[in-house]
Amino acid sequence: MKIYINSIVFLVLLVSCSEKETNSTENEVININHLKSVVLKQSKPLFGKFYERFKITGDGEYWIFVDRMRDKIFVFDKEGQYINTISESGRGPRGIVSIDGFDVNENNEVFIYDASQRMLKIYTLDDELISSNNFLEKVNFGTTPLEMLWYEGKVLTSIIENEFMFEPQNSKVLALIKTDGEIDTVFGRFDPFAEHDNTYSFFNNITIDDSSNVVFTSLSSSPFIQVFDLNNFSKESYIGAKNSTFKVPEKEISANLSIDEVNRRSVNTSRAVNLFLTDDYIVQHIQTLTEEWFLTTDYSSKANSLIFYDRITGEIVQEVPVEHSLGSVRDDKLYFIEDFNPDNYTIGVYEIVTDQK
Amino acid sequence: MKSSLIKNNLVLLCLCVLFSGCKPSSNEMYLNKTEDDWKAYLSEISGKQEPSLKNTVLLVLKSSECSPALNELKSWNALDETNSEVKVKLVVVERYATTTKVLLEQEGINLPMYQDSIALVLRKELLPATPIKVFIDDKGKVKRLAAIDSRTKIEDFLTFN
Questions:
Q1: Which domains does chain B have, with CATH numbers?
Q2: DSSP A140-198
Q3: Which one of B38, B142, B143, B151 has the lowest number of neighbouring Cβ atoms within 10 Å?
Q4: Which chain A residues are closer than 8 Å to B28 by Cβ?
Q5: Is A253 at the interface with chain B, CB within 8 A?
């Protein structure tokens, strides 16, 4: 049984452990400046509701979205012109039933993980099928929806082991898998904060620093970030700090509660929903789940903030409340979703400007 | 059953635990609502005077529901095409009209549909959550509520002792 007061004690310990000596980042002030807004043009087929995150190709030319209404990938160019969709609906050779993971690599190859079929299919950006393989057919873990990335021709994903579903703090957290479905390595452990988050959450966000071969991962119910070395699969560091703005549920949220009770207990709690890298910063996207969100599931009804960590020291530089949800980051530009209305779906492109105090 | 669910469909379990919960609420206060309450609500979201809701099943769900709910929707859609005794109507809680349109197009649903863009059905406490189906009987009484989740046969939902 999780006891709230234990969480408090643990949090106090963590906060005191994370205090650092004064450093240069304390003199930085981060501003986010708007550069332009781009409206996606609807075409045929219509898209209905994109997930809050999207991918950008390595050259920055194309934006890739998943429509959760159609379970289909939509490709737009950077001016918002519709280019094409990728894959077909169904179970045929090119068919996709559900999109549970996707990413694009530097060669503009798009993989789609379809958990309904337990298959990984790889397409070109022009919708040509490159390969199709059984994937994660006989494994003792599940994957986190949409948390899959290309890494050196393989797929890196966050996982939870089946036997630790209700004690996630004991589960391994990451898996590197070959595109033919063979498991390469299962490694890392869940954020220890999982024992104190009151939610049994097992969503782990991931982002990869290809230049130094490390993966950053943050449990959605935790303000902390784990860093793993992809050369030897060991834990490199544990960064972040519990602060007053990251709120965990006061009462435990378990699967045997009623729907409305789960919602009640989750109102005004925080979720780490994504991790990104810029040249200078690790950017952690935090959302606060509002009562309006639970009523409407309208993405724009959640509150958003970004926590900027110094990429070298791992220290927190600044938390910046932002108006919109952060959909992607590429080449030091932040891409916010300014309007979720599919008839006026708007991406705002912003730059980070760092000033000295 | 829970064990097999965990092993076979982790994705759905994740969504359930985090965003929905698993156990339905007590339905008593919602069973005390009347046809008139529902007609007033539907008039408010549609801007039209509503005809009788006697012998009507209302399917209320959000556009983001998982596949079990959407699969059951297809069964009701099929029933509506063959059964004239019970009317079936759909209420989609969704802010944007195009999202609703795409959902229905994708799932092949052509039931009479209302769009509730502000989740008024929950604000008015006609229901505790979504997705839920409501049966209003021939006397205008809310006779039964149940989750829309493909677990029960729709014929059973309409059968009373």
A1: 23-157 (3.40.30.10)
A2: SEEEEEEEEEEETTEEEEEEEEGGGTT-GGGSEEEEEEETTS-EEEEEEE--GGGGSSS
A3: B151
A4: none
A5: yes
Nearest CA in chain A to B127: A260
- What is the pLDDT tens value at each position of chain B, 161 positions in all? 333 333 333 433 444 434 443 444 568 899 999 999 999 999 999 999 888 999 999 999 999 888 888 889 999 999 888 877 899 999 999 999 999 999 999 999 999 999 999 999 999 999 988 999 999 999 999 999 999 987 878 888 988 65
**Which residue segment(s) compose the domain that A218 sits in?**
4-39+163-170+189-356
CA distance B60 to chain A (A): 13
**Distance in angstroms between the alpha carbons of the first and the last residue of chain B:** 28
- Hey, which residues 271-290 in chain A have their CB within 8 Å of chain B? none
Query: What's the complex ipTM?
Result: 0.87
* Interface probe with A: pick from B26, B60, B106, most Cβ of A within 10 Å: B106
Name the domain count of chain A: 1
Query: Which of B67, B97, B128 is the closest to A260 by Cβ?
Result: B128
Strands of A55-56's sheet in order across = A55-56, A62-67, A72-77, A82-86
The verdict on residue A35 lying in a domain is yes
